[in-house]
Amino acid sequence: MFKRHAMLPVIVLALCTAGAVSAGDIAPADIEYKDGRWIEQPLTDVAGDPAAGRKVFVNRKLGNCLACHVNSEIPEQPFHGEIGPSLDGVGGRYDMPMLRGMVVNMKNALNPESLMPGFYSLDNGSRTLEKFAGKTILSAQQVEDVLAYLQTLK
Amino acid sequence: MTQNPLRVPALIAGLALLLPLAGQAGPDENVLTIEDQTIGTDVPGPEGGPLDHLYSGWRFRTAETQSLQTDDFENPAFTAVDQAEELWSTVDGAAEKSCESCHDDAATSMKGVRAAMPKWNAELGKPHTLETQVNQCRTDRMQADPWKWESGQMLGMTAYIGLQSRGMPVAVQTDGPMESWIAKGKEIYYERVGQLDMACSNCHEANYGKMIRADHLSQGQINGFPVYRLKWAGLGSIHRRFKGCMSNIRAEPYKVGSDEFIALEAYVASRGAGLSVETPSVRN
User: Fold this and answer.
1) Strand, helix or coil at B40?
2) For residue A28, which residues of chain B lie inside 8 Å, CB to CB?
3) With contacts defined as CB-CB under 8 Å, which chain A residues touch B210?
4) Does B196 touch chain A if contact means CB atoms closer than 8 Å?
5) Exposed / middle / buried, residue B262 (Cβ in 10 Å: 0-12, 13-18, 19+)
6) B195 against B47, higher pLDDT
7) What is the percentage of chain A residues whose pLDDT exceeds 90?
8) Judged by CB atoms within 8 Å, which residues 2-61 of B form the interface with A?
């Protein structure tokens, strides 16, 4: 009994770690691309939750999407970045496989030189800090949540 | 009048948010005058370089932060500068010498030094940064202990020495033995690194003038270093800033004082050739 209790925090921590691949998730290397760019199959078995996705979008340690994008659906957050295009109406401009391709890895999807980070890719830059090495920026579920949120931006 | 009145405040909030962004599209037009001396913060880029125009980082800061740099009494870096002025003539080490014993009046002997750093040193077989030069004087000539790179004494002394070049154009050697160091620095500048897979150029060349969340991106020039950063509540070196930017993109930074950061410093200095030295600058 004692042993199991001691393990609990470790398990909880592992579940919370962004980028950990859990059972049922498609690992970055196993993603099937259409035309090498778009991704039809969801990355997890659990449908994305737009409310959770909105939080991932804002969180500076997770999506931090506002660092680079204006999004009028989030007026309560000051300072939206100007590096990428505005995401207003983005859910109306692209279908789900395209959006998934772009968030997973913009460098495959649209622009090989894009400075938008690949959020579910292990094809990172060199010298990645040890604590992030071999990990994706977002977990598969977080990506699906963000995608469900992006779809609401019409 | 069919509109839900509750929507109006949200709309106004949205507008208020876009206005400051619109006003920030590029460096501002402000002119930097310190103690009656006008300092050029805007010059044509060096020939063959990637930037048509160079802007000092000062041009990208808010009016409040900018104003702290226009008056040496308000510039919080001057506490350290004043202490360093005292250190300049304080005897230290077994040789019983001070900086002044060899260099006399800093206002004359140190004029132009910051503008030319990093500078090739044949004896060393590599470039000296201001920090390594100060430490070589301490160990070899004064027989005193070297100062740590990011120590109060080193930051104060490099700020005090840098101040003697204020207003002079940055003019670092790029040919001869410096060429390979600059080339190495250039490689580091354009290399995409870290989990976020970004290079210095992604932010400071392709996107300067734009907002990255609450930060107004500058060209990442080093003519104001060491800078007093309000966030640090103190002075910080060029290498500390490099380290911070690299960690932010989740890349393993090179060590402060490493050959890689010396090469990067030399390259970034060459990108800013012609900008005026502003040491010690104030940043947020």
Assistant:
1) coil
2) none
3) 81-83
4) yes
5) buried
6) B195
7) 82
8) 10, 13-14, 17-18, 21, 25
Residues B226, B170 contacting (CB under 8 angstroms): no
Where helices occur in A26-139 by DSSP H, the ranges are 50-58, 90-93, 96-109
Coil vs helix vs strand at B227: strand
Domains in chain B: boundaries: 5-75+168-283, 78-163
- How far off is chain A from B195, nearest CA to CA, in Å? 5
Q: Which residues pair with A126 in a beta bridge?
A: B193
pLDDT at B47: 84
CATH topology classification for B5-75+168-283: Cytochrome Bc1 Complex; Chain D, domain 2 (1.10.760)
> Residue B82 above 90 pLDDT?
yes
User: pLDDT digit string (tens) for B247-277?
Assistant: 999 999 999 999 999 999 999 999 999 999 9
- Model confidence at B12, in pLDDT bands (50, 70, 90)? very low
Q: What pLDDT is stored for residue B260 in this prediction?
A: 98
Q: Which CATH class is domain A2-150?
A: mainly alpha
**What pTM value is reported for the model?**
0.90
Domain B78-163 coded CATH 3.40.50.2300: no
Q: Is B245 a catalytic residue?
A: yes
List A residues 2-41 in contact with B (Cβ-Cβ < 8 A): none
